[in-house]
User: Fold this.
Amino acid sequence: MNKEYAKIMLKAEAAVGRKEAMSLFKEARLIRKKIHHNESSPPLHQGN
Assistant:
């Protein structure tokens, strides 16, 4: 997924119009969310 994200960000940087760039940034943001969601987070300390 990191490769997909990087590819889309490069396209967004090279985008000609604002609408094109914003749609690519939105797509990249969705991929970034998936990446962070798939990373496992350590369990929270319960204070026991």
